[in-house]
Amino acid sequence: MDAGGVGGIGGKKCEEVSLVLCAWYFVRRVSARTSLEVFQSTKIKALSTVFDMSFLDNLFSDPKYQTTDPRKPEELNDSEIIISPDTRREKRIPPGQSRTKKWPVLDAHGTPDIDLATWTFEVGGLVEKPQKWSLDEFMQLPAVRVYADFHCVTRWSRLDNVWGGVPTREVARLVGVKPGAKFVLALAHDYGWTTNVPIEYFLNEDSLFAWSHDGQPIPPQHGGPVRLIIPQLYAWKSAKWVNGIRFLQEDQAGFWEEGGYHMRGVPWGPGDGERFRYG
Fold first, then answer.
1. Which among 61, 72, 112, 213 is least surrounded, fewest beta carbons within 10 Å?
2. Which CATH architecture best describes the domain 14-258?
3. Mean pLDDT score of the chain, rounded to an integer?
């Protein structure tokens, strides 16, 4: 999850390319004029198309490459977008980080195969009303857009991102989090991968379960159909391919945390940021 080896979409046959090109062209045309509301109306169809065609991005120029300087929050001119507070810093790149104009692909095990028809998102632990949603049901929940920067612990930062999806606060409201819950454990599709998040960061206004990035469905190699986004922590806390969460009283180390990564992971922490638990 944004801290390990390079992953991607593999196993595609050459004869699929002509059919996928048509889908790829259609999604690019739609997304060029898409607002959050239009994207929501395409629902599973758009996500399915992106899952089929995303490997083509590696055959052509990087569609996520940034050609301009990052915008300042006041330049967005959109009162409905939630502004992540770190984007208002005079210096938006944390200590030890460098800006990238690309969107690198990093993960622990490679991109998992996910069947959108059977995808579910389940919430349990210290809650009053455990919930389980299908992808279509999940995408019917109230949605927001968030303007945020994205800081990977491997020392790159991608500034100027607009995420669309379900606020973490909305999910917490629907399940009724019990007072004893202090931490959240995010669960993912890739071989039981997990990560832990302090509940105060999980419930920040700018935290969400994202299914779009810059107005387009999040492709599989970047964590689609749905990934957790916690802008105020290092990006490994923004779990790719998320399929559920548990509210916990005690902190529980996830995959990278068990390997020595910090239990909290604040990029703006002391010195070089909260990268590691030891040393």
1. 61
2. Alpha-Beta Complex (3.90)
3. 81
